[in-house]
Amino acid sequence: MNWVFLNEPSTEKLMNTAYAKATRRSTNCLLIGLCILQLSCRMKYGLSDASVSPNLKSISIATFQNFAPLSPPYLSQNFTEGLRSLVSSQSRLKLLVRGGDLIMTGKITGYAIAPAAVSSVGGQSAAAINRLTITVQVSFVNTQNPKQDFEQSFSQFADFPATSTLSSEEGRLTREIQDKLTQDIFNRCFSNW
Q1: Per-residue pLDDT tens for 33-78?
Q2: Is the C or the N end of the chain the one with fewer CB within 10 Å?
Q3: pTM given for the model
Q4: Could you tell me if 94 and 57 are in contact, meaning their C-beta atoms sit under 8 angstroms apart?
Q5: Is 21 left (phi over 0), alpha (psi -120 to 50) or beta?
Q6: Rounded distance, CA 176 to CA 44, Å?
Q7: DSSP classification of residue 5
Q8: 3-class SS at 2?
Q9: Cβ distance 189 to 142 under 8 Å?
Q10: Residue 101: phi, psi to the nearest 5?
Q11: Nearest-angstrom CA–CA distance, 185 and 17
C-alpha cells in the first residue's frame, strides 16, 4: 500500500510555518481591535435624567383636576401623587409647588367602562371581559425651551373579567392604569418619545 498522507508534514509542523504565524497575528489583532471597539462604544441606558437639560433644576406639577364622570373621588389625588413620585424618583429635578423651570398641568377627562370581548352563550351575547379606560389631558411648559412645550391627551386601559364587579377591581385597575399613564407622560416629557 502506498499511504501518501504519511509523507505529509504533521499539523504541528504546519503551525510553525510563516503562514500560520501570520494568521495567528492577524486573528489576535482582530480580537484586540474588536475589544477596543466594544469598550469605546458603550452606551448608557436608563430613564433617570433622560433628556433633562443641566440648566433645568425644578418642576411644578399641579393637581390634575378630575372632570371624568363616574370616576372615584380619590383618582385625582392618587394620579397627581403618582406622577410626582415618578418624576422625583427618575430625575434629579426638584419638585416645587409653583414656579418651576418645567410646569405640568392637566386634567382627567375620561373614565369609561366598555366590553372588550364578547362571548355567546345559548344564542345570547354577553361581555366576557370588560375594559376600564382612563384618559388625561396634559399641558407641559418648558420655560427655558418653548420648542418642547406640548398639549397632549394620554389614554390607557386595563381589562377585568365580566364575572367581577368594577367596585371589586377598581382599586387594582386604577393603580395599573395610573402606572402606565404616568410612565407615558414621563417618557413624552423627558425622553422625547
Answers
A1: 554 545 444 443 444 445 688 889 999 999 999 999 999 999 999 9
A2: N
A3: 0.70
A4: yes
A5: alpha
A6: 28
A7: G
A8: coil
A9: no
A10: -65, -30
A11: 65
